[in-house]
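Hello,

Our lab assistant flagged a job as stuck in the queue for most of the afternoon. It eventually completed. Since we weren't sure the result was trustworthy after the delay, we are filing this so someone can double-check. Below is the sequence as submitted and the structure that was eventually returned. Let us know if re-running is recommended.
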Amino acid sequence: PKKRRSTVRKALAADLSVRITVAAETVEGQQKEFVRTYSQTMTANKAKPFYFFDPQFFSTIFATGTTDLYLFEVLDPRYSEPIASALFYTDSQLRVHYFLSGVLPEAKNLGATDLVLYRAAQYFAGKGCTELDLGGAAHLGGQGLAVFKRAWSSGERQFYVTKMLCDPVVYQLLRIGTSEPESPMFLLRDVEGFTRTRCGAK
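-- returned structure --
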């Protein structure tokens, strides 16, 4: 999209660059910076508890050893640590999924997040991927994240978060057996849809 290309050029003119690392090869410092940036972003956005994860969650995803999860970090020569970062994972159908991301408040106007998506589209296109799913938004017709994702999207379709129960009986047993049956873990939610774009940004 024209406006997004303009934002990417702005980021490049500011000497921003993107470091790409297979998640299994990241070092502890990278992992901690990602968690810090993501958590700060969720706090600044006043996100619901559903979008916050405990340290064990992040430790697990980085420790799985998979080569299908990638960490993208935006580097700015004026800062000692990444100013934005995102996790992407690929599936067996050569699709790429925009997983979790964060950006420092001072970097929001630098086009750092746009640069991440631009580089991701280029990088994964080089690996033969043809579709980049940008993930969901609580209200695609709304503002903020929804507007940003629509600007990069060539389409949308319905999807659900923790909506399908593979074994309803076991689910209810787990829910009854917990001391916190109303925990976000047991709340079925859905969102309006998700956006997707094509890999291979020009």
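-- support follow-up --
The delay was a queue issue, not a problem with the job. The result is valid. The helical segments are 2-13, 28-44, 55-63, 112-125, 145-152, 168-177. The chain has a mean pLDDT of 80.
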